[in-house]
Automatic annotation (TrEMBL):
<dbReference type="GO" id="GO:0008270">
    <property type="term" value="F:zinc ion binding"/>
</dbReference>
<dbReference type="InterPro" id="IPR045357">
    <property type="entry name" value="Aminopeptidase_N-like_N"/>
</dbReference>
<dbReference type="InterPro" id="IPR042097">
    <property type="entry name" value="Aminopeptidase_N-like_N_sf"/>
</dbReference>
<feature type="domain" description="Peptidase M1 alanyl aminopeptidase C-terminal">
    <location>
        <begin position="553"/>
        <end position="876"/>
    </location>
</feature>
<feature type="domain" description="Aminopeptidase N-like N-terminal">
    <location>
        <begin position="103"/>
        <end position="186"/>
    </location>
</feature>
<dbReference type="GO" id="GO:0006508">
    <property type="term" value="P:proteolysis"/>
</dbReference>
<keyword id="KW-0482">Metalloprotease</keyword>
<keyword id="KW-0031">Aminopeptidase</keyword>
<dbReference type="Pfam" id="PF01433">
    <property type="entry name" value="Peptidase_M1"/>
</dbReference>
<comment type="similarity">
    <text>Belongs to the peptidase M1 family.</text>
</comment>
<dbReference type="InterPro" id="IPR038438">
    <property type="entry name" value="PepN_Ig-like_sf"/>
</dbReference>
<dbReference type="InterPro" id="IPR037144">
    <property type="entry name" value="Peptidase_M1_pepN_C_sf"/>
</dbReference>
<comment type="function">
    <text>Aminopeptidase N is involved in the degradation of intracellular peptides generated by protein breakdown during normal growth as well as in response to nutrient starvation.</text>
</comment>
<keyword id="KW-0479">Metal-binding</keyword>
<feature type="domain" description="Peptidase M1 alanyl aminopeptidase Ig-like fold">
    <location>
        <begin position="444"/>
        <end position="547"/>
    </location>
</feature>
<keyword id="KW-0378">Hydrolase</keyword>
<dbReference type="InterPro" id="IPR001930">
    <property type="entry name" value="Peptidase_M1"/>
</dbReference>
Length: 876
């Protein structure tokens, strides 16, 4: 397959001024007529051939300036249609036939539950019609949708409806006009039997915007939360970024079959139903928060992505990193800032760092690809957001806002590059961000080793920072340059109070942002009367691995006294990690393990301290690091040993603090009617953490409590937490009965049944694999629907380490079988699902062999471009 390189970028030879589309919808033969008014790009010379992209299109007619083109005037080469001889300005007409019903890849125009819908990012539009399908070609679109009036009463596209009417044979049409020039990836069309929920938003300039949420009739009771989230996002973007919505209506459609979370098509966002439909009975607290974040994310794209878009797909992080950063800060402002930061960093450190350490590692701005769909990654999204966050850390909030204002103003209506964003930040701040650009170019997670020296006589405390970035595929270690890294920090004295900082002539107060630029840097703090405890990388101010040789006492001290909520949590996690690894080493050496006293003291302190100002942070602090995170900390990973050691520490804490867990449970039971409010969420989080520890002992009383919670719960958060305990603690009859009851109640709701699939797939018991295989035959499962696949197979391979990595290789074999099936029907999902099989580098030789064997079995088949690229990297 062809490799596309960033360095080869050329502006398009011809741009499109207006695009007129007509769709005559039919499942097997939808006719698409396109009229493109085109002209030569001013920077390109005359006489260059016209190049259009298309895939799976049956071309029925093509004409230039009204004259039909004979076959000798154009040629089709793979995904390209080339016309050698075109004038500087012309109109191109085409007609193609496509088959939405046969489209299982869910890219382009496809059917979901009888509804027609589209997904065009990144290169789906070429499955709809021949087009210069690249983000730097921006055109004004007018779209006429024609369909059967009885079965397709709703016909939607981008912008505003400008005409509609009835046609013969029971058909009708609606014509939509989008006044804003846009790239083809933002095109959308929806048609079906949908209900609509409406509301209004008045912008800060007094314009009224009609908000519409389209759903299938059975989902009408799940729309209220998202409508509220949308309004909160619209208001927040006005207040925080000065961004106002620009069309008269904003539409959201919920679709069951969707490859990702949602899509920001101009004025017509299309959502995976799992990312928009919510109701207390069906949705857990984390689900509400996820939905709020995604609704906001897609809305924010209207400016960061749509009004200002990407020049080419290498610039994907320009819109995604920035928009993730925007949705993260929105959620932080709306809920708990420290908890949001803890959750985001946990994802980054567990999943993005693993990507950085594996064969698919790539820079935030990749420089080559085979299949761009493979680059919608944690690195582009989450590390991309961290890079924007670092810019804000370096510039300060106000200057950063001046930067974003200037960026939106300068580049409105344009398709631009990462440099345009960073240079704008440099312009407004006067800071040299030349070195900072390396964050976009260098793959891998930088490491910073910090050493301390204290000179009591001179009252000086010095920290030496040494940074380096390890080798990643295609980038040897020697090629990695030092990065510009903001390290937010403070120093604590022995009583836990912050120390006034004095560096050179600067007196920054109790906290400062160090700007590292060199491979090695030494910073001396003056007037330090006693040896302090440093609190480093507060708020996780840069996406790095920072090592400081803390003693366990220092970690416990930071848990108690640090002013930074994130660092308090982080210190506790590190302490727990050390305690777990102690146990692991003891088990491996055949010795009797014991629980670390310092960890026990810290938990005792946290559970006893009455001033629990931030319950939500406490709920995070009481949870042990995940098996996936712990595995990421090891050079050599022993999956079973990590599982057993973590379980031992959990059980020890459960037993030794039993009384506290019981009290914590009881003090957080609320009778109030469910609300997904921050206050209530933190109570439920604490209660369910307590339930988990109580059940970790396997005590009959605790399982009876879980059973009772399961039977009496009035919301899905409590139901699911209880059911998870019954199933994961292997509560025999109780678990079986609860699973049956759940199934009987919810078999009509696929999104709820997804949760039922997931919690069975993630049970640590050795029966999990057989259960997964059996569930594949259950009516609630379908290989055709990405949500079902993620709920069962994705959950098993990503979150059930002990069973996925079974010593007999059966977990790997199962995943390989499914990936091979999806390779044919949905390559995008296949290439994502296979990723756990590519992460074998730190496992023992036996597991490595088994994983490679599974990958080789996949490689022996005829592969889609998506899967080919991933497998080749993994086996390189
Ligand atoms: N910008 C959207 C990306 C997306 C996507 C990418 C590849 C394949 C399918 C897709 N669906 C949506 C979503 C977002 O980041 O907002
Ligand atoms: Zn996005």
């Amino acid at each position: 397959p062809e490799v596309v390189y960033l360095k080869d970028y050329l502006p398009p030879a011809y741009t499109v001024e207006t695009t007129h589309l007509t769709f005559e919808l039919a499942p097997e033969d939808t006719h698409v007529k396109a009229t493109l008014r085109m002209k030569r790009h001013p920077e390109r010379e005359a006489g260059v051939p016209l190049e259009l992209f298309g895939a799976n299109l049956d071309l029925r007619a093509i004409s230039l300036n009204g004259e039909a083109l004979s076959k000798s005037r154009y040629r089709i080469d793979g995904e390209r249609l080339i016309i050698d001889d075109v004038p500087d300005a012309f109109v191109l007409d085409t007609e193609v036939v496509i088959a939405p019903e046969q489209n299982t890849a869910l890219e382009g125009l496809y059917r979901s539950n009888g509804m027609y819908c589209t997904q065009c990012e990144p290169e789906g539009f070429r499955r709809i019609t021949w087009y210069p399908d690249r983000p730097d070609v921006m055109a004004k679109f007018t779209t006429t949708v024609i369909g059967d009036k009885a079965t397709l009463p709703i016909l939607l596209s981008n912008g505003n409806p400008i005409d509609q009417g009835d046609l013969e044979d029971g058909r009708h049409f609606v014509t939509w006009e989008d006044p804003f020039p846009k790239p083809s990836y933002l095109f959308a069309l929806v048609a079906g039997q949908l209900e609509v929920v409406e509301s209004y938003f008045t912008t800060r300039n007094g314009r009224t915007v009609l908000l519409q949420l389209y759903v299938e009739p059975q989902n009408l009771h799940k729309t209220e939360f998202s409508m509220g989230a949308l309004k909160r996002a619209m208001k927040w973007d006005e207040e925080t970024y000065g961004r106002e919505y620009d069309l008269d209506r904003f539409m959201i459609v919920a679709v069951d079959d969707f490859n990702m979370g949602a899509m920001e098509n101009k004025g017509l966002n299309i959502f995976n139903s799992s990312a928009v439909l919510a109701n207390p009975e069906t949705t857990i607290d984390a689900g509400f928060q996820r939905i709020e974040g995604i609704v906001a994310h897609e809305y924010f794209h209207n400016w960061s992505g749509n009004r200002v878009t990407c020049r080419d797909w290498f610039q994907l992080a320009l819109k995604e990193g920035f928009t993730v950063f925007r949705d993260q800060t929105f959620s932080a402002d709306t809920n708990s800032a420290p908890v949001k930061r803890i959750e985001d960093v946990a994802v980054l450190r567990t999943q993005q760092f693993a990507e950085d350490a594996g064969p698919t590692a790539h820079p935030v701005r990749p420089d080559h690809f085979i299949e761009i769909s493979n680059f919608y990654t944690l690195t582009v999204y989450e590390k991309g957001a961290e890079v924007v966050r670092m810019l804000r850390n370096l510039l300060g909030k106000e200057t950063f806002r001046r930067g974003t204002d200037t960026y939106f103003e300068r580049f409105d209506g344009q398709a631009v590059r990462v440099e345009d964003f960073v240079n704008t930040m440099a312009d407004v701040s006067g800071i040299d961000l030349g070195q900072f650009m390396r964050w976009y170019e260098q793959a891998g997670t930088p490491r910073i080793d910090v050493a301390e020296e204290y000179d009591a006589e001179r009252q000086e405390y010095a920290l030496t920072f040494r940074q380096h970035t390890p080798a990643t595929p295609g980038q040897v270690a020697d090629s990695k340059q030092p990065l510009h890294i903001p390290v937010r920090m403070g120093l604590l004295n022995g009583r836990g109070n912050p120390i006034e900082l004095a560096v050179g002539n600067e007196r920054p107060g109790h906290e400062m942002v160090l700007e590292l630029r060199e491979a090695e840097e030494r910073i001396v703090f003056k007037h330090v009367a006693e040896k302090p405890t440093p609190s480093l990388l507060r708020g996780f101010s840069a996406p790095v691995i920072l090592n400081f040789p803390y003693t366990r006492e220092q970690l416990a001290f930071l848990v108690k006294y640090d002013v930074d909520g994130f660092n308090r949590w982080d210190a506790g996690q590190r302490l727990a990690q050390e305690a777990i690894f102690d146990v692991m080493h003891a088990i491996q050496a055949g010795e009797a393990p014991t629980l670390d006293d310092t960890l026990l003291d810290v938990f005792d302190y946290l559970l006893k301290t009455p001033d629990r100002a931030d319950r939500a942070v406490l709920a995070e602090m009481l949870q042990l690091p995940s098996e996936a995170y712990l595995a990421g900390q090891r050079a050599q990973v022993d999956i079973d040993a990590i599982h057993d050691a973590r379980a031992f520490v959990e059980r020890s804490l459960a037993e030794q603090l039993h009384f506290h867990w019981q009290a914590l449970y009881e003090s957080n039971v609320t009778k109030a009617a469910y609300e997904p409010s921050f206050e209530q969420i933190s109570h439920r989080a604490l209660k369910n953490v307590a339930l988990s520890y109580l059940c970790a002992t396997g005590d009959e009383d605790a399982l009876a409590l879980a059973d009772q919670q399961f039977k009496t719960a009035t919301n899905m958060t409590d139901t699911r937490a209880a059911l998870t305990q019954l199933v994961h603690r292997h509560a025999g009859e109780r678990a079986d009965a609860a699973l049956k009851a759940f199934e009987a109640r919810w078999s009509h709701d696929p999104l709820v049944m997804d949760q039922w699939l997931t919690l069975q797939a993630t049970q640590p018991h050795p029966e999990a694999l057989d259960r997964v295989k059996a569930l594949m035959a259950h009516p609630a499962f379908s290989l055709r629907n990405p949500n079902r696949v993620r709920a069962l197979i994705g959950a098993f391979s990503q979150h059930n380490h002990v069973n996925f990595h079974r010593a007999d290789g059966e977990g790997y074999a199962l995943l390989a079988d499914i990936v091979l099936q999806l390779n044919k029907s949905n390559p995008e999902i296949a290439a994502r699902l296979v990723l756990p099989l590519t992460r074998y580098q730190r496992l023992d030789e036996v597991h490595q062999q088994l994983m490679r064997g599974a990958l080789e079995r996949i490689r022996n088949q005829s592969l889609s471009r998506n899967l080919y690229e991933v497998i080749e990297k993994a086996l390189a």
